[in-house]
Specification:
The strands form eight sheets. A five-stranded mixed sheet has the order 2-7-8-9-10, with no helix packed on it. It has a four-stranded antiparallel sheet with strand order 1-33-32-31, with no helix packed on it. Strands 3-4-5-6 form a four-stranded antiparallel sheet, with no helix packed on it. It has 395 residues and is mainly beta. The N and C termini lie far apart (60 Å). It has three helices and 33 strands. The chain has helices at residues 2-20, 26-31, 386-394; strands at residues 47-53, 64-65, 68-69, 74-77, 82-86, 93-98, 103-109, 114-118, 122-126, 133-138, 148-149, 153-157, 162-167, 173-178, 193-195, 198-202, 207-212, 218-223, 244-246, 249-253, 259-263, 269-273, 281-283, 287-291, 297-301, 307-311, 323-325, 328-332, 337-342, 348-353, 364-366, 369-373, 378-383. A hairpin with a 4-residue loop joins β4 and β5.
Length: 395
């Protein structure tokens, strides 16, 4: 009964935000359609190096499926249960395993396992070299956060606010912790990140919590996005989007709340800005990058959070979380376009298209290539040719 109630609350939140609009009132949405794409002179040569069809699509489900790598192989999964491994250089298929369940998150990859999460609570671990199933566990709730594979376990975060550490050997539960959920939440979950022996996780109550990976004990917690307002809708404060770790600093954001820089060892807030985003942040060594709820792309100085530049090119186009890639900032949109902006001044420098399917998960930079998965089940891989990269660096 508890599980059913939680799913109903999530659905109500999604319906409410669709009707009221994440970006404003219903009337305002009618008056302001997605901004049309502007023509510009492309100055960055972006080359598609290979692509693949992963399986069935997941249009409008906004699942937590996106590619990942372990330095040897690239892994990706489809909503209808196919998990695939590819050679990063050529795109050659190395193996494909049909799990025959609906998947909602992953893959997560480590030295010993590749792990995916299912809509009905299944967590499935595969051998990285062969794709052979190693074990399967059920955590009851749907997972939208990428499973985190460590040397000793698999950390799984479900949409009911449960965080579980499973044994890497057989999937048995080692420890668990839970946070109370507010009455309404956005559909989405923040994927845990690791700093040393600590996992840092964002929750739907606006809190960021650091836990010891071995014991599950809380090391610190911080309120990134304090709930405000009277109604449940006004008090939405989910920390659902991408977290970033640069050095010993953690960057997190909350819906209808703040973007904050925190010390990884203590949770002390170093600086914070009143900026609302539900997709999270991107970062490089100089700046952090945010997509506000109306689609405006913003660059802030990493050291103090002051504005560097802003771009309104993608207003109401539902851009993904940004990713820093080769001196550019990259986001996908609801029509399958991938947009490249200069990290220096925010000017558009390139645009490519994966297909007609929406891109709801952020592009993933692995090495010198960019991996983009659409909700139609397409995977496309891009790179910036070396000559073009050197030209940009010299400029």
């Amino acid at each position: 009964m508890k599980k059913l109630k939680i799913h109903i609350l999530v659905i109500i939140a999604v319906v409410s935000l669709t009707g009221c609009g994440i970006f404003g009132s219903k009337d305002k949405e009618k008056e302001l359609p997605p901004k049309e794409l502007l023509k510009f002179k492309q100055t960055l040569n972006v080359k598609r190096v290979w692509s693949a069809k992963l399986g069935g699509g997941s249009e409008l489900l906004r699942l937590g499926l996106s590619p990942t790598g372990d330095g040897v192989r690239i892994y990706a999964a489809s909503q209808d249960g196919d998990v695939s491994a590819f050679d990063p250089k050529s795109g050659r298929s190395l193996w494909k395993t049909a799990l025959k369940i609906e998947l909602s998150s992953g893959p997560g990859a480590g030295d010993k396992l590749v792990v995916v999460g299912g809509r009905d609570g299944d967590v499935v671990a595969l051998d990285p070299a062969t794709g052979t199933e190693q074990w399967r566990a059920n955590v009851i709730g749907e997972t939208l956060a990428r499973p985190l594979v460590t040397d000793d376990g698999v950390l799984v975060y479900t949409i009911d606010g449960q965080l579980r550490m499973l044994s890497i050997f057989d999937g048995s539960e080692k420890w668990t912790m839970q946070q109370d959920l507010p009455a309404l939440t956005l559909r989405g979950s923040s994927s845990p990140v690791v700093v040393g022996g600590t996992a840092i996780v964002g929750f739907d109550n606006g809190r960021l919590i650091a836990l010891d990976l071995d014991s599950g004990n809380t090391e610190w917690e911080a309120l990134v996005s304090p709930p405000t307002g009277r109604s449940d809708l006004e008090r939405l404060s989910d920390v659902d989007g991408q977290l970033q770790v640069v050095g010993q600093d953690v960057y997190a954001s909350g819906y209808q709340g703040r973007v904050a820089s925190l010390a990884a060892e203590s949770g002390q807030v170093l600086w914070a800005r009143e900026i609302s985003t539900h997709v999270g942040v991107g970062a490089d060594w100089n700046n952090i990058y945010i997509v506000e709820d109306d689609g405006e792309l913003v660059s802030l100085l990493r050291r103090n959070g002051s504005d560097v530049w802003r771009s309104e090119d993608l207003l109401r186009r539902e851009p993904t979380a940004p990713v820093a890639f080769d001196q550019s900032v990259v986001v996908g949109d609801f029509e399958g376009y991938v947009h490249f902006f200069s990290a220096t001044d925010g000017s558009p420098v390139a645009r490519v298209r994966v297909g007609k399917g929406e891109i709801s998960s952020a592009p993933v930079a692995i090495g010198d290539r960019l991996y983009v998965q659409s909700e139609s089940g397409a995977l496309a891989v891009f790179e910036i040719p070396k000559a073009n990269r050197e030209d940009n660096e010299s400029n």
